[in-house]
Specification:
257 residues, five-stranded mixed β-sheet, alpha+beta, 2 domains, Beta Polymerase, domain 2, 13 helices
Amino acid sequence: MGIPKDIWRENSELNEWAILLGYRGSISHGMYVPSKDPNSIDDKDVIGVCIPPMDYYYGLKTFGSRGTKEIKQGEWDIVLFEMTKAIRLLEKGNPNIMAILWLDKTHYIMKTEAGKMLIDNRELFVGKHAYHSFVGYAHGQLHRMTHLACEGYMGAKRKELVAKHGYDTKNAAHLIRLLRMGIEFLNTGELQVIRQDATQLLEIKRGEWTLEKVKSEAERLFISAETAFTLSKLPEKPDRDKINKLCIDLAHNWLRE
């Protein structure tokens, strides 16, 4: 499985500017259900960090929409972040982009020297502040799980699951996974992206848990997350000066090359 050649050719953000690319979502968590499976609701999701040419920094050009560009083609969904946007999100402990620094080695698609530098400095983004990001995203999944049934962004198969089970089972799986990952991170300072509990999370995603069971587990995990935050020995927040220096070094080294 790899990004189709025509997508590579048509997007400079991938073939020239990317410093780090990897799988995200179900593939990175070990939960991907191939499209040939009649019950599959998964895309092939990719996340990346780019450093565009110098005129994007010194001139008037802008990268995508506020530093983010999405490429969608068929079952491929690729999200790319301009480097300074990515680092700002990393500094905030954003779960969606934090994962790129802790992927299983088999889930990296591209890793340049600049990309390795970013991974090698991932400890700069470790801190208790991530609690608010993980719990905040989990609350969002909890709301969408029951309040946004059959929204337009859903495919037909996902809408069928919502109609069958009375709630969005994919959001439910995200909810439980985010809380568990957040607790692990607060305890260890490491993100367990590829999930040891993937089998159970897939049960939730398939609708094998009742809504009451999902809510009960979520309630327990919200309490555990708060306890983990209180007891965590991680730094309160990242050192912004060190992160700023990393940002400068990444841009300087890449653009010089």
